[in-house]
Design brief:
- It is found in: Cell membrane.
- The chain has 305 residues and is an all-alpha fold.
- It has 11 helices and no strands.
Length: 305
């Protein structure tokens, strides 16, 4: 229990520092959320500033915003005056979560078997081909992979839509592929390296010497220790999916959290950017806790960390 309380306190302090740093950087950046309203009469500008508390000193703005956050209110959006940040995130977060979890599931469902196949055929042409493809997948960034997927499957083959979001599976295929490709490649390489290390262990040689082999040796004895590094990698993989959603959602025109973050930063929508930072930061904290718990169940030796 003391450990849980300490981790909870650490997570809250981390979120507070993250939000504070983001608040300071946003206010320090040149420009403001209503620079396009320069032609408006002075009284209109003053009314806008008063409505959004921009007429107060920065420290007073920070205190008022932090008080609202503690009450669960992320404030009004500057660029979407008919919506609050809570409403925007409530509509966009399920889209980002759906795409991210689908991308990670695809990376695991394909990456682990491909890594196992490469390890079992280490040094052969199939292993070299798989690792070359994995290296290529890691080398191509998402902002390059996404347009290439659009050119191939939407423009050339006309199989899938080039962008937009209607909640259907066809509109999700290309964004999920763009998000999944680098994680799939890394998962395959990590699984291969881990399984090769396990295969060299003395206890594996002893098991083979006693006649144990084939599928039973692989699925009952080898996969669990070989997948421990993959489980540890899940935390940065999920973070990579979250950060990559900003690029992918922008390219495909998907109204997710990542796109709101990019648009909010460009438009100096302070409350929207800060809301996204808090939600994503909280998600990362929860992800780290869950992954640590999963590692502890798979390897009891980690329970005392």
């Amino acid at each position: 229990m003391p450990r849980f309380a300490a981790r909870t306190l650490e997570a809250l302090v981390t979120l507070w520092l993250l939000a504070t740093l983001c608040f300071v950087l946003l206010r320090a950046a040149p420009g403001g959320p209503f620079d396009s309203e320069k032609a408006a009469p002075p009284e209109v500008e003053a009314a806008l500033a008063a409505t959004y508390r921009l007429d107060r000193p920065p420290l007073a703005q920070y205190g008022a915003w932090l008080g609202d956050v503690l009450r669960g209110d992320l404030g009004p959006s500057f660029q979407y005056p008919d919506y609050t940040v809570n409403e925007l995130l409530a509509a966009s977060l399920p889209i980002t979560v759906t795409l991210g979890l689908a991308a990670l599931a695809l990376a695991l469902l394909l990456g682990v078997p491909l890594g196992v196949l490469a390890a079992l055929r280490a040094g052969r042409w199939s292993d070299r081909l798989l690792m070359f493809a994995a290296g290529l997948g890691l080398a191509v960034p998402k902002f390059v992979a996404a347009p290439l997927l659009i050119l191939l499957f939407a423009v050339s083959l006309h199989w899938l839509p080039a962008g937009g979001w209607d909640g259907g599976w066809r509109g999700a295929v290309l964004p999920v592929l763009a998000l999944a490709l680098p994680n799939l490649a890394y998962c395959a390489r990590l699984t291969r390296a881990s399984l090769l290390e396990v295969l060299e262990a003395d206890w594996v040689r002893a098991a083979r010497g006693r006649g144990l082999g084939g599928a039973r040796l692989l699925f009952v004895h080898l996969l669990r220790p070989a997948l421990l590094p993959v489980v540890a990698w899940l935390s940065p993989a999920l973070i990579n999916v979250v950060s990559g959603s900003a690029v992918v959602e922008q390219v495909f025109g998907i109204p997710g959290v990542g796109r709101h973050f990019v648009q909010g930063a460009l438009n100096r929508d302070y409350t929207l950017v800060l809301g996204v930072v808090l939600v994503v930061g909280a998600a990362i904290v929860v992800i780290n806790v869950l992954v640590d718990a999963l590692r502890g169940r798979m390897d009891p030796r980690l329970g005392g960390e």
